[in-house]
């Protein structure tokens, strides 16, 4: 019984020693290099097991293998024995297992890991992390796109693990995260040493349409185009170039976003401080056109001081035209200061005010009644526009075209480009209007005809036309019409047909209308007036004499006279 117990214990101890001394497959074991031959290292992993490993598995990417007899190394035991009776071992797999253990700890604690870029793949690069291969996306190489990654190849440097999956064997790392962190620390340090209002030197790093980025020694500041100079700057490249060292003032620092605003013009005197003194109202100055818009043109009086000439202040005569048709960019012009608003940094200028108002000049040189000559510029339904000296126009209304007939009937006789003469009737400088008359060049035939004629005067006219409603007559070249009811006192004689063309007829003037240029004439009124006069001179019906007797007596006296 005792002997059997002793034997069982011995077998148990023997089996335990076998289990302890025999390495387990699929684990990392320690071994010793006992020989190097044919590009391989022969390694004793214990329990009389030896295996072979290619020397290249002991080399880092881009380096020669550093292994010699007697070195102790860790290898991965894939199988205890192969067909040749050797252990199947791998240094690379051992390094990978070791690396994954180490990297998982670093990933969990968000620590940096060291590695070297050794290859280029689609979308990025491969990185050796001491046995494990990771993927470095192209966007994670640097804070800015890298055109040539050659200088970075094989260089040991820190990386940040972004993602890892041991089951799938995937590791994604970033070099950019390390650089940004370092840069953030550097920015914070530089910004901490800056104060608003401080003047510093910087190097122009980049130029855009809206400004330039200036390197202040590890941190960039934005120099906006509006803060480069007091004058208008169309593009930063006009005054700056990349790599140039400039002196700038720190205008504003945003501690949260670490953004820095810079200025150059703040280091110069503000020209607006003396604008009101140098450019008093109504003073005239020479300036340069810097910009033209639809609503006017900007004129630079001096660097940093620009004024606007509104389109309404550009020309006395050119209305509703684009400013570009009056002035051109870079043109030297004379302008008058109309208004200054120092608070808003605005100056209103006038271009036309430097020249005399052409309507004032015309009024002085062409008083009312002066004869002028000009070209027909335009023909409208209400008259003609005539070009006059000073690049202005005057208008001849339809009613001022002719004494005879209607203006609507004669305006068709005129064409654009015709040179005509007219007389100045009125000049309204404030409304910029000039009234002309063509008919005023001749005397009014109506005025001549009715000269000395008054209402109630009896005149002799000639019948020129017989109509149903009356007769047309002519007096001193002036046409008039006598209605049927005015042809006689007696209704029986109110017949137009009793007259003939060419008859001379005495009529009484009942109305003179200078506006319509017409005479009101009546035979009936003449007869009534004659009857009244005869009654007054030769009796009345009250005395018993008949109207026939009275008229007979009057006619007899008239015949004797």
From TrEMBL:
GO terms assigned for molecular function: mRNA binding; structural constituent of ribosome
Domain S1 motif: 26-92, 110-176, 197-265, 282-352, 369-439, 456-524
Alphabetical list of SUPFAM superfamilies matching this protein: Nucleic acid-binding proteins
Domain of life per record: Bacteria
Assigned GO CC terms: cytosolic small ribosomal subunit
TM regions (residue ranges): none
Role description: Binds mRNA; thus facilitating recognition of the initiation point. It is needed to translate mRNA with a short Shine-Dalgarno (SD) purine-rich sequence.
Family: Belongs to the bacterial ribosomal protein bS1 family.
PANTHER family on file: 30S RIBOSOMAL PROTEIN S1, SMALL RIBOSOMAL SUBUNIT PROTEIN BS1C
Name the record gives this protein: 30S ribosomal protein S1
The organism's taxonomic lineage, starting at the top: Bacteria, Pseudomonadati, Pseudomonadota, Alphaproteobacteria, Rhodobacterales
Gene: rpsA
């Amino acid at each position: 019984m005792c002997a059997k117990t002793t034997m069982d214990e011995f077998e148990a101890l023997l089996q335990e020693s076998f289990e302890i001394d025999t390495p387990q497959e699929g684990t990392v074991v320690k071994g010793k290099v006992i020989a190097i031959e044919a590009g391989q290292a022969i390694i004793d992993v214990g329990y009389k097991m030896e295996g072979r490993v290619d020397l290249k598995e002991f080399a880092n990417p881009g380096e020669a293998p550093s292994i010699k007899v007697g070195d102790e190394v860790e290898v991965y035991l894939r199988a205890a024995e192969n067909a040749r009776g050797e252990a199947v071992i791998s240094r690379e797999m051992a390094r990978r297992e070791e690396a994954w253990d180490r990297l998982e700890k670093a990933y969990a604690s968000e620590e940096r890991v060291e590695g070297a870029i050794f290859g280029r793949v689609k979308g990025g690069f491969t990185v050796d992390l001491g046995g494990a291969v990771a993927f470095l996306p192209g966007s994670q190489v640097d804070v800015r796109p890298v055109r040539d990654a050659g200088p970075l190849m094989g260089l040991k440097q820190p990386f940040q693990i972004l993602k890892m999956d041991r089951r799938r064997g995937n590791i994604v790392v970033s070099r950019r995260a390390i650089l940004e962190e370092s840069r953030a620390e550097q920015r914070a340090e530089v910004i901490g040493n800056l104060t608003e209002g401080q003047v510093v030197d910087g190097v122009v790093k980049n130029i855009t349409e809206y400004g330039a980025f200036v390197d202040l020694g590890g941190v960039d500041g934005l120099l906006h185009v509006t803060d480069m100079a007091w004058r208008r700057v169309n593009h930063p490249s006009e005054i700056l170039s990349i790599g140039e060292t400039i002196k700038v003032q720190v205008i504003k620092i945003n501690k949260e976003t670490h953004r820095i605003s810079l200025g150059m013009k703040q280091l110069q005197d503000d020209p607006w401080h003396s604008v009101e003194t140098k450019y008093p109202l109504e003073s005239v100055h020479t300036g340069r056109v810097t910009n033209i818009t639809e609503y006017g043109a900007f004129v630079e009086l001096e660097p940093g001081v620009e004024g606007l000439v509104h389109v309404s202040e550009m020309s006395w005569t050119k209305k509703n035209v684009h400013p570009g048709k009056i002035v051109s960019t870079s043109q030297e012009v004379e302008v008058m200061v109309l208004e200054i608003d120092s608070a808003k940094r605005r100056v209103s200028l006038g271009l036309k005010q430097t020249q005399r108002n052409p309507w004032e000049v015309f009024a002085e040189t062409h008083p009312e009644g002066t004869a002028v000559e000009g070209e027909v510029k335009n023909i409208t339904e209400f008259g003609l526009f005539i070009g006059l000296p000073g690049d202005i126009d005057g208008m001849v209304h339809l009613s001022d075209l002719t004494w005879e007939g209607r203006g609507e009937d004669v305006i068709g006789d005129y064409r654009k480009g015709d040179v005509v003469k007219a007389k100045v009737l009125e000049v309204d400088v404030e409304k910029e209007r000039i009234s002309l008359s063509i008919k005023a060049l001749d005397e009014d035939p109506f005025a001549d005809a009715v000269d000395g004629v008054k209402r109630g005067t009896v005149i002799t006219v000639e019948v020129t036309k017989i109509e149903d409603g009356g007769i047309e007559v002519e007096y001193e070249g002036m046409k008039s019409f006598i209605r049927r009811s005015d042809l006689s006192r007696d209704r029986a004689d109110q017949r137009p047909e009793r007259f003939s063309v060419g008859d001379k007829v005495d009529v009484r003037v009942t109305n003179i209308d200078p506006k319509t240029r017409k005479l009101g004439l009546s035979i009936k009124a003449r007869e009534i007036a004659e009857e009244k006069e005869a009654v007054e001179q030769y009796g009345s019906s009250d005395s018993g004499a008949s109207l026939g007797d009275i008229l007979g007596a009057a006619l007899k006296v008239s015949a004797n006279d």
